[in-house]
Design brief:
Blueprint lengths: L2 H19 L3 E7 L2 H16 L3 E7 L4 H10 L3 E5 L6 H8 L3 E5 L13 E3 L13 H12 L7 H10 L12 H12 L4 E6 L9 H6 L13 H10 L5 E2 L2 E2 L7 H14 L5 H8 E6 L12 H13 L3 H8 L5 H26 L4 E3 L3 E5 L9 H9 L8 E8 L3 E8 L9 H11 L3 E4 L3 E7 L3 H11 L3
Parallel strand pairs: 1-2, 1-3, 3-4, 4-5, 11-12
Antiparallel strand pairs: 6-9, 7-8, 10-11, 12-13, 13-15, 14-15
Helix pairs in contact: 1-5, 2-5, 2-6, 2-12, 2-13, 3-4, 5-6, 6-7, 6-12, 12-13, 12-14, 13-14, 16-17
Bound molecules: cytidine-5'-monophosphate (C5P).
Length: 465
């Protein structure tokens, strides 16, 4: 670990010990997505274990109002996870020295000097691919006490939620790989090279194949009937009694048969690429029940994302902190609702073509009156994963809270654009009195509705430079 990061974590540890000794209240504020839910849960669990007086709350984004409310709330100390990039000055002004940010989003240069910003980029770590906010929270938890090493497992879910499995064959790199090793060595995690179908533990086989959009297989992806026929013709047993079998139950021989059947289907020029993308590392919690959505870490991350996206982040936090029974049923229902909503929005977008304005380098999508703002990230990521949009930047917008427009941008696979989406969104939004930020490949922004035309012109002028 870089020395500067270790020093920052020691500083964090000292402040927290001080809060615990003097009975001060700590407020954990975190983002609503998978990385937010997991990072908030990791640090909250560590603080509770250490004997801190602590509460946790999720928040869709940080802005001046949120910070002013933190000040009014009068808690003694604040730990902000997966949020806060670009707001260090406001946090200083409102909360004095009583805060820390644990994060991995890109930050403006001036924040590199602030010791309360514990952000991956400050220590030469690529926060886009090598560590998530959950990973940063894990490092802080580990610094508080080595017994928090067990929280590495949840940090693996954080990294998958933010699609940081970008090494060869969907492996992890940098600190993420070390965190995964910690979880593996303690027997909490198994890592295997396997067939990558969406919903490994929970989706019926034909659905799993149909919902596998990375790689996108023309004719199979999003076409359940075709997937059913393909598996049937390959003589794969699809049901166990009345119950559908799931991908994790396929034997080695069956996997080979499925791969062969798909190979025959994908005779085009991308066949080799598709086949190579279909094999990659899977991350499994072997102690969770078979066919539970908590067993496959990617499904776990999808469930957490869905909790946040449909305003039920609390359920996700409860599950990450160890709650089961009723919370699991809730989680299952949330996941089903979320998947249904995604299907509906994608269907409408494919029929209402007026919503889409397409150019060589960029696809602008108008989701106003259709997509709730909490779902923009999900839908823009899906659009960026479609082969129709290969190489493009996808920018989705919809109506946001309090007369605002929310933007969500993604670089698609094969996008060679030099534009850094984090800078595009932050600098652009600032020009129009809004807020924006994120990562090179995925970023968001919010502006007032009356600034929309100007902001769209700005995007058009800057997206293809
Ligand atoms: O909102 P969306 O999912 O498109 O955001 C993409 C990424 O950008 C997320 O990681 C989000 O936390 C980040 N973001 C940010 N500041 C904003 C908006 C989004 O850091 N104002």
């Amino acid at each position: 670990m870089p020395k500067q990061l270790d020093d920052a974590l020691s500083n964090f540890e000292n402040k927290i010990s001080d809060c615990i000794r003097s009975g001060k209240s700590i407020f954990v504020v975190t983002h609503i997505d998978c990385d937010g839910i997991t990072s908030g849960s990791i640090i909250t669990k560590a603080l509770i274990r250490a004997g801190a007086k602590c509460t946790v709350r999720t928040c869709p984004e940080i802005n001046k109002n949120v910070i002013a409310n933190l000040q009014k709330d009068a808690r003694d100390f604040h730990v902000i996870t997966d949020l806060g990039g670009g707001f260090a000055k406001d946090l200083d002004e409102n909360l004095g020295e009583n805060w820390f940010v644990l994060d991995h989003h890109q930050i403006p240069k001036e924040e590199f000097e602030n010791e309360r910003v514990i952000n991956a980029w400050r220590y030469g770590i690529d926060g886009g691919t090598q560590i998530s906010a959950g990973g940063m929270a894990f490092l802080a938890a580990k610094k508080l006490d080595n017994k928090n090493l067990d929280l590495a497992a949840i940090a693996v879910v954080s990294a998958l939620g933010d699609r940081q499995d970008q090494g060869e064959k969907k492996s992890f790199t940098g600190p993420n790989a070390e965190i995964a090793s910690i979880a593996k060595n303690s027997g909490q995690l198994s890592i295997d090279l396997d067939l990558l179908l969406a919903g490994r533990e929970t989706r019926p086989l034909p659905d799993a194949l149909a919902f596998t959009s990375q790689p996108f297989i023309e004719g199979l992806t999003w076409n359940r009937d075709a997937c059913f026929s393909l598996l049937n013709s390959a003589k794969i047993k699809l049901k166990e009694g009345a119950r559908w079998r799931v991908p994790a139950e396929l034997t080695e021989e069956e996997k080979r048969t499925v791969i062969e059947a798909i190979t025959k289907y994908t005779t085009g020029k991308n066949a080799t690429e598709i086949m190579s993308e279909l094999i990659g590392y899977t991350y499994t919690f072997p102690k969770e029940d078979k066919r539970s959505f908590l067993r496959d870490c990617r499904e776990f991350s999808t469930m957490l994302n869905s909790c946040g996206r449909i305003q039920r982040a609390g359920v996700g936090i409860a599950i990450c902190m160890g709650d089961r029974a009723k919370m699991l049923q809730e989680g299952e229902k949330i996941l089903a609702d979320y998947r249904k909503m995604i299907r509906e929005y994608m269907n409408v977008l494919s029929t209402e073509r007026w919503r889409i304005s397409d150019s060589e380098k960029c696809m602008m999508v108008n989701g106003e009156g259709l997509i709730p703002e909490t779902m923009t990230g999900t839908i823009s990521s899906l659009l960026a994963g479609s082969p129709k949009n290969v190489g493009k930047i996808v920018i989705l917008r919809t109506n946001g809270q309090e007369g605002t427009i929310k933007f969500s941008s993604r670089k698609s696979i094969g996008c060679k654009s030099k534009v850094n989406l984090s800078a595009l969104m932050r600098e652009g939004a600032e020009k129009f009195e809004g807020v924006g930020g994120g990562h090179d490949m995925a970023a968001g922004a919010r502006i007032a509705k009356d600034k929309l035309d100007g902001f769209l012109d700005y995007l058009e002028a800057n997206v293809s430079v």
